[in-house]
Amino acid sequence: MRLVGKTALITGGANGIGLAACERFAEEGAQVIMADFDVVTGKAQEQLLKEQGFDVLFIQLDVVNRENIRSCVELAIETYGKIDILINNAGITRDATLVKMDPVDFAAVLDVNLTGVFNCTQAIVPYMLDKGYGKIINTSSVSGIYGNFGQTNYAATKAAVVGLTKTWAKEFGRRGINVNAVAPGFTVTSMVSKMPEKVIEQMKSAVSLQRLGTPRDIANAYLYLASEESDYVHGHVLHVDGGILM
Ligand code: NAI
C-alpha cells in the first residue's frame, strides 16, 4: 500500500496504460481521479473499479480545452482537497510519413501530446506548490528518444516532453515537487493494435526481451515514480521498453 493518503490524477485514464495505472494506483491505496475524454468507457471502468472497493472518481477531461481542465481540477480539489500526483498520460497518434502528413493531423497531435501536458500541469501545479509536495510524471516514448518511421508529429511531441520534464524539474525541485518521465516502448494497447501485424512483429523482434510491453509494465514504472521510493529521482526519463535499443 505505497500510495495510502495520496490523490492521483491520471489523464487518459479510461483506456490502455492510463487504465492500468488507475488500477495499479488504486491497489496501492490511492484516491484515483480517472480523467479522460472518453466518457462511456471511463464511466464503465470507474464502476468496475468501485465494485472492487477502490476509491476512483471519473471526471471528463479534454486536455486541449483549458476551461474544461479548470472545472475538472476544481471538482478534484472539491472532492479530495488536493492533488499529490499528476500523470500526464493522455496521448494520440495520427501517423503518416512526412510527405503524406496532413497539417491538421500534425497540429492535432501537438495539441494533445504537448500542449495538453502544458495545460494540465499549469492548472494543477499551483495546488502542489501550496502544499509543498507533488509528483509529476510525463509520458514520453521510444519514438521521442530515437525517432520512428511515420511519426513526425508524435516523435516531435514525445521528444518535447523530455524537454518539459527537465525544465520543470529545475523549476520545481526546490519547491518539493518531483518531475520525471517514463518513455514506454511498444505496449499492447489500442494505439499499437491498430498497426499492421507485420509492423507489430518487426517491433517485437527489435525488443531484447522479445515481447511487447503490457500496460501494467508501464503502470508499474509510473507507480515507482509516484511513490516515495523514488524521492531522490528527479528530472529523469525512465525507459521501460524491454531493451529496444541499447
Ligand atoms: P490509448 O489510446 O489506449 O489510451 C489513450 C487515452 O487517452 C484514451 O483513454 C483516450 O480517450 C485518452 N485521450 C485521448 N485524447 C484525449 C484528450 N484530448 N483529453 C483527454 N484524454 C484523451 O493509448 P496508450 O497506448 O494507453 O497510451 C498512453 C500514453 O502512453 C500516451 O501518451 C502514449 O503516447 C504513450 N505511449 C504509448 C505507447 C504504446 O506503445 N502504446 C508507447 C509509448 C508511449
TrEMBL record:
Keyword Glycosyltransferase among UniProt keywords: no
GO molecular function: 3-oxoacyl-[acyl-carrier-protein] reductase (NADPH) activity
Domain (Ketoreductase) ranges: 6-185
Entries under Gene3D superfamilies matching the protein: NAD(P)-binding Rossmann-like Domain (3.40.50.720)
Its EC number(s): 1.1.1.100
UniProt keyword Hydrolase present: no
Enzyme class of the recorded protein, top EC level: oxidoreductase
Family annotation (CDD domains): BKR_SDR_c (cd05333)
Keywords, sorted A to Z: Oxidoreductase
Xref: NCBIfam families: PRK05653.1-3, PRK07231.1, PRK12826.1-2
Membership in a protein family: Belongs to the short-chain dehydrogenases/reductases (SDR) family.
Protein name: 3-oxoacyl-ACP reductase FabG
Organism in which the protein naturally occurs: Sporosarcina siberiensis
